[in-house]
Amino acid sequence: MSEGGVDLSKIRGDWKFHIDYLQNAVDQTLKRQVRYWGELDNDAQVGADVEQQVNLWSELQANANDKGTIPTADGLLEKFISSCRGARPRCDAYLDKNDSLLAEEFTEACRQTRGLCDDLEMMTGQRPDDQ
Q: How many Cβ atoms sit within 10 Å of the Cβ of residue 6?
C-alpha cells in the first residue's frame, strides 16, 4: 500500500479503463453468487436479494452507452449499491445458520460484490463528461 491517499485526479485519465475493470469484476462476482446460490437456494429472503441484485445489474448493462459503460447518473447504480449493502445482514445471518463451505463461498462472493460497490461509488463521482 502506498503511504499517501489516492490522488483521484489521476483516475480521470484512465476512468474508462477503471470502470471497465469494475464492471467485469461485478459481472464475475455476481456469477459466482448466482452459481453458489443455485446450489444452496434454501432461504427466500436471501434468494430475493440475489435476484434483485442480478436484475438491477442486468438493467444497468442494458442501459450502457455505445462504449459499453453503465449509467451512473440515473439513480439505478445507487439502487444496485443499496441492494448489495442492504443484503449484508441477511447474508451474514445466513452464514451463521448454515455452516458449510458452500455457504461460506456464497457469503464471500456477496462480500466481494459489496466491496466493489465502494469502488463503483467512487468512480461515479469521478466520471468525466465525455464518458
A: 9
Report the predicted TM-score, pTM, of the whole model to 2 decimal places.
Answer: 0.87
Q: Which three cell numbers stand for residue 105?
A: 463461498
H/E stretch holding 47: helix 44-62
Cα separations in angstroms, 55 against 60, 61, 67: 9, 10, 21
Predicted confidence (pLDDT) per residue in 76-128, tens digit: 999 999 999 999 999 999 999 998 999 999 999 999 999 999 999 988 888 87
Query: How far apart are alpha carbons 113 and 71 in whole angstroms?
Result: 18
Distance CA 4, CA 20 (A): 25
Sign of the four-CA dihedral 37, 42, 45, 46: negative
